[in-house]
Amino acid sequence: MTNFFANIDWLTILNGFCILGIIAGGILTASMKKPLSCVLALGGCGAFVALEFILLHAPDVAIAEASVGCVLSTILFVIALRKATKEEEK
Amino acid sequence: MNNGNKMKVRHVIVKCGADMYLPFAIVFGLAVILFGTVSPGGGFQGGVIASSAAILIYLGYGFKTLKQAINPHLMHKGEAFGAIAYIALASIGLIAGGNFVRNAIWNNGDPGKVISAGTITYMSWAVGFKVLTGVAFLLMLLISLLGDNQDEM
Predict the structure, then answer these.
(1) Which residue out of B26, B49, B56, B57 would a mutagenesis test of the A interface target, given it has the greatest number of A Cβ atoms within 10 Å?
(2) B45 and A79: CB-CB below 8 Å?
(3) Model-level ipTM above the cut of 0.85
(4) Of A28, A49, A23, A47, whose CA–CA distance to A38 is shortest?
(5) Which residues, at least 6 apart from A55, have a Cβ–Cβ distance to it below 8 Å?
(6) pLDDT, tens only, A29-75
(7) Other CB atoms within 10 A of residue B100 CB
């Protein structure tokens, strides 16, 4: 146990912060009441996943995750939600 | 501005934000496509980044201006052109006497430069063009499905 705490440094702390952000984003996505809040929490989860990919020395995958998982999927979900709520009002 | 409950006038902050981020999105996406073989990124990532310009134009100026700025039929044909260009460049390996995506002209340029990987560079550009036009066409199709684009702006 003492050996584990002796080897800790700032990179490990940042890794743990990113993993906690991913877990928090997933839990918020599953437990939010409003659908728009779920979509935004999913985008935040994607941003933390992109940061974790950068920390694991994979900037290629990080750019793909940031552009697809964080921006494009959020936009598609928001457009679909707007279409669904508009048809619900009619 | 016929009825009050529908928001038809775009907010000035949204318009100015779209104006500010539009050149950065296009230039960064095209740079990621061009340097795809020698730097992080590639055709797919750069194409998705550059095609977010369509969303920015829609957010700032509405669907009519987006339709005037980007021709959807041209985007649809450009996607087919990108796919054909990828297959044609990959078939050079067959003609040179190897496998389907074999690198045929591999000994041009110094390592680390942009044009140094033979046909891989041009295949990456073809993938970038295909993804750029395809995702832009997909986004325009989804926005046109919203159904509120006839009487705005």
Answers:
(1) B49
(2) no
(3) no
(4) A28
(5) A11, A14, A15, A18
(6) 999 999 999 999 999 999 999 999 999 999 999 999 998 888 889 98
(7) 10
SS3 A14: helix
> Residue holding tokens 């690198």?
B103
With a cut of 60, say whether residue B4 has pLDDT above it. no
Place of tokens 């702006």: B153
Q: What pTM, to 2 d.p., does this model score?
A: 0.82
CA atoms within 13 A on the CB side of A90: 7
In the block, which residue shows the tokens 């995750």?
Answer: A65
Residue window 33-72, chain B: list those with CB within 8 Å of chain A.
40-42, 44-45, 48-49, 52, 55
Q: Are A86 and B147 in contact (CB under 8 A)?
A: yes
Q: B44, B48, B138, B152: best mutation site toward chain A, by most A Cβ within 10 Å?
A: B48
CB contact under 8 Å between B142 and A72, yes or no, is: no
Instruction: Identify which of B80, B113, B42 has the alpha carbon closest to the alpha carbon of residue A64.
Output: B42
- State whether residue A1 is helix, strand or coil: coil
Q: How many CA atoms lie within 13 A of B60 on its CB side?
A: 18
